[in-house]
C-alpha cells in the first residue's frame, strides 16, 4: 500500500514578484539589487502588479507625497490580498507606524537578505530586519556591491559609495532612516565599476545621501 505524500503548498522561487520604487538613485540601486537576487533564486519579476503574488515596495521618506503613495500602495495590496514586503527609508525611520504593522521589512542595510524575507512572507510569517552592518565596530556602506542586479536601464550602473550622513539637519527624516555615515572601501567601488563595464554598462552614477563626504 502506497503511503500518502504531504507536500508544502509553498514552493519558494516559483512566485511572481512586483517591485515598486520611490525616491533617490540610491533607492533605485537597492531595488535593482533586490530584484536581481530574487530573479537569481528563481522568482519572476513582473511589471503587472495584478499578476504578482507578492509586492516589494521600496519607500522614500524625503517628501510627503512619496510617503502617501507608499501608504496607498500598501492599502491597495491589502485590498487585493497580495503578500507584501516593504523596504526603504519609511519603515527604517518609523518602524512603529500603524499602517505598516504586521508587514515584513527589509532594512536599508539588509537588502542582501531579501530572498529570505520573501520566502518567509510567502509562508505567512512577518520578518523585520533593521540591523546595521559593521566591520571592526565601524558602520560600513551596506550589503556587498557584488550582488546580482537587474538594472532598470541596462546601460547605467548606479553605485552607492556610502550611506547615511554627517549632518544633523532638523528638517530631514532621511538621517533617522539611513543613520550616520558608513562608506564602502574605494577598491570595492572600483571593482564594481569594472565589472559593470564588462556587462555592457556605458555610464556610471555614483550615489549616496552625503556624496560630498
TrEMBL record:
The keyword Transferase applies. Keywords: Transferase. GO terms for cellular component: endoplasmic reticulum. PROSITE patterns: MTTASE_N (PS51449), MTTASE_RADICAL (PS01278). Residues 15-123 form the MTTase N-terminal domain. It comes from the Eukaryota. This is MTTase N-terminal domain-containing protein. It holds the Pfam family UPF0004. GO terms for molecular function: 4 iron, 4 sulfur cluster binding; metal ion binding; tRNA (N(6)-L-threonylcarbamoyladenosine(37)-C(2))-methylthiotransferase activity. Its cofactor is [4Fe-4S] cluster. It comes from Dreissena polymorpha (Zebra mussel).
Amino acid at each position: 500500500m502506497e503511503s500518502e505524500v504531504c507536500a508544502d503548498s509553498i514552493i519558494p522561487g516559483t512566485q511572481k514578484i512586483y517591485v515598486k520604487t520611490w525616491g533617490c538613485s540610491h533607492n533605485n540601486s537597492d531595488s535593482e539589487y533586490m530584484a536581481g537576487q530574487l530573479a537569481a533564486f528563481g522568482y519572476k519579476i513582473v511589471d503587472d502588479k495584478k499578476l504578482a503574488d507578492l509586492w516589494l515596495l521600496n519607500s522614500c521618506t524625503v517628501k510627503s507625497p512619496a510617503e502617501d503613495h507608499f501608504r496607498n500602495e500598501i492599502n491597495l495590496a491589502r485590498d487585493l490580498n497580495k503578500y507584501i514586503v516593504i523596504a526603504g527609508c519609511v519603515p527604517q525611520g518609523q518602524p512603529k507606524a500603524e499602517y505598516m504593522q504586521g508587514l515584513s521589512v527589509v532594512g536599508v542595510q539588509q537588502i542582501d537578505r531579501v530572498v529570505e524575507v520573501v520566502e518567509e512572507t510567502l509562508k505567512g510569517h512577518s520578518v523585520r530586519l533593521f540591523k546595521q552592518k559593521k566591520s571592526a565596530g565601524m558602520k560600513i556602506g551596506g550589503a556587498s556591491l557584488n550582488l546580482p542586479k537587474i538594472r532598470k536601464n541596462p546601460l547605467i550602473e548606479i553605485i552607492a559609495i556610502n550611506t547615511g550622513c554627517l549632518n544633523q539637519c532638523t528638517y530631514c527624516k532621511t538621517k533617522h532612516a539611513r543613520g550616520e555615515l558608513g562608506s564602502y572601501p574605494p577598491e570595492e567601488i572600483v571593482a564594481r565599476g569594472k565589472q559593470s563595464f564588462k556587462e555592457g554598462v556605458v555610464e556610471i552614477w555614483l550615489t549616496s545621501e552625503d556624496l560630498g563626504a
